[in-house]
Specification:
single chain; 303 residues; mainly beta; Porin; twelve-stranded antiparallel beta barrel; 2 helices; 19 strands; signal; Transporter
Length: 303
Amino acid sequence: MKLKLATLVAFLVLANNQINAQGCSDAGFCTLDIVKPIELEEAEVKQPHKHTFKAGLNIGSADNDITVFGQYLEYNYKFSEKFSATTKLTAISQSGNNISNFGLSDLLINANYKFAKNTTGVLGFKIPFTNGNDTDENRSLPMDYQSSLGTYDIILGVSQKIKNFQVVVAYQQPLNKNENTYFSSSSLNNSPFIFSTNEFDRAADVLLRVSYPVKASKSLVITPSILPIYHVTNDKYTDLMGNSREIEGSQGLTLNANIYLDYQLKNNDKIQFSLAAPLAVREARPDGLTRGFVANIEYSIRF
């Protein structure tokens, strides 16, 4: 029954990989350790390791024939049984429509505290490496090609294990507008980039992840999960007259399906493969985080 459930979710992910959805990992909080599904073996380790290094690569299919490649490095240090801290460095490459851009994205720093056996909280910050206004031939690029949203964000979350289910609730609040200067009116006729994002003011997100790990073998864990993300209000931009304008339809729900495959290698090495795709989307997604699918591979080692 458990394997049938995992197979069903994997089928749903693959079957919907042509629909557009928010590419959550770009925004930051979907891929924090506390938000990702908890690894089963964590509860079985009698002497937990203090250091964990991770390196990952991902590919995504974005709107408007854009292909996205992401990369990240992550380090976690466990100070005690209850307290740990993580830093994560991300980068991204976008290409399509004879435009390409590559750059460092964000630095994510978060502290995790275990309040009880099955309850952990997180406080995190996202620090951008760019102001959200990368240019091409001195013209601002749409958010679809920006290497970072250009915002400083605060992240709050809590993870709770309920029997075999893992439930995570998280909140991400941008603290500033970015410095993007793109106007759709300045683009060529028939441009697919229809949202002006001058001084883009991105709204907050609320996330819920429900996952169910299945130990398929001694070395393999399969974890299907459902990931609804609610964008709490409409995003805004500043028009040519200096007035703040709401981007209609940017508020609302995005529903993603994910599946993780964790394979334990020799010693403390592990390979993780994950795939995500949407089941439902917001009407407007001016932040450039639209994805038809995202596939990720990650290598980690503990000591």
